[in-house]
């Protein structure tokens, strides 16, 4: 059936900005309004590649930095066939982290340039909307301590944030910065409004390819 496609909506932002909560709330609200919507998250830890990534994040395993970058990317690529299929069936996908986290986290390490980091994710389905949940390091700190996973420390997260700001300068992508210091409810309402606008706009437009 030729028809309207779903939108690809990505949530990005620093730790504790509320991406996972907002992703869940958005999918619930869209479904309640009669839309078809699914929630995805990356890394998706349940696949074999995802389990490797998970053991790296919980520090059970050490992996070389380039190798781990490629694993995160492979974890996204292994989901592309099902993502494309769902989008073309008219299902909107809400994705908790995507290639932008991939680039921001690896490029925050010593000796990694943004350009190298982008290469393996070139050609992924291009998001129709990227919501950047903005929260200052001070406000994030008020929401509790970091966990014990790799990357969960403030000096690294500050570098990650700078990489995100750099990626957000790309005007070929539809970035929207959202103030994540608002209440869960207020932020949810704003996110739902922009998500619905995007779903309307893209339904007859082809899905793009990222960074191509
Ligand atoms: P989360 O499950 O959303 O808390 O993400 C796990 C951690 O992995 C988090 O610190 C962000 C980081 N991360 C997510 N995607 C990537 C990626 O593609 N590359 C790297 N290096 N780190 C990532
Ligand atoms: Na985390
Ligand atoms: Na994630």
Q: What do these coordinates show?
A:
- It contains nine helices and five strands, in the order βαβαααβααβααβα.
- It has helices at residues 19-32, 48-57, 65-77, 80-88, 99-107, 114-118, 137-142, 154-167, 184-202, and strands at 8-13, 37-41, 92-96, 129-134, 175-179.
- It has a five-stranded parallel sheet, sandwiched between helices.
- It is globular and about 45 Å long.
- Bound molecules: 2'-deoxyguanosine-5'-monophosphate (DGP) and sodium ion (2 copies).
- One sodium ion binds at residues 15, 149.
- One sodium ion binds next to loops.
List keywords for this structure.
binds 2'-deoxyguanosine-5'-monophosphate; 212 residues; nucleotide biosynthesis; nucleotide-binding; globular; five-stranded parallel β-sheet; alpha/beta; Rossmann fold; single chain; binds sodium ion
Provide the fold topology.
Blueprint: E1 8-13, H1 19-32, E2 37-41, H2 48-57, H3 65-77, H4 80-88, E3 92-96, H5 99-107, H6 114-118, E4 129-134, H7 137-142, H8 154-167, E5 175-179, H9 184-202
Parallel strand pairs: 1-3, 1-4, 2-3, 4-5
Helix pairs in contact: 1-9, 2-3, 3-5, 5-8
The chain binds 2'-deoxyguanosine-5'-monophosphate and sodium ion (NA) (2 copies).
């Amino acid at each position: 059936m030729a028809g309207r496609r779903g939108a690809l909506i990505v949530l990005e932002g620093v730790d504790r900005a509320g991406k996972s909560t907002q992703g869940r709330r958005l999918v619930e609200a869209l479904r309640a309004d009669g839309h078809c919507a699914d929630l995805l998250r990356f890394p998706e830890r349940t696949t074999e590649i995802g389990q490797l990534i998970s053991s790296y994040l919980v520090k059970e395993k050490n992996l070389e930095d380039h190798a781990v970058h490629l694993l995160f990317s492979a974890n996204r690529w292994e989901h592309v066939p099902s993502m494309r299929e769902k989008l073309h069936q008219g299902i909107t996908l809400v994705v908790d982290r995507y290639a932008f986290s991939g680039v921001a986290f690896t490029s925050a390490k010593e000796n990694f340039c943004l350009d190298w980091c982008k290469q393996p994710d070139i050609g992924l389905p291009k998001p129709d909307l990227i919501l950047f949940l903005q929260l200052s390091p001070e406000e994030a700190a008020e929401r509790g301590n970091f966990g014990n996973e790799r990357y969960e420390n403030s000096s690294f997260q500050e570098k990650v944030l700078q990489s995100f700001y750099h990626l957000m300068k790309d005007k070929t992508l539809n970035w929207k910065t959202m103030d994540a210091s608002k209440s869960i409810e207020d932020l949810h309402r704003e996110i739902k409004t922009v998500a619905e606008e995007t779903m309307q706009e893209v339904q007859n437009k082809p899905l793009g390819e990222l960074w191509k």
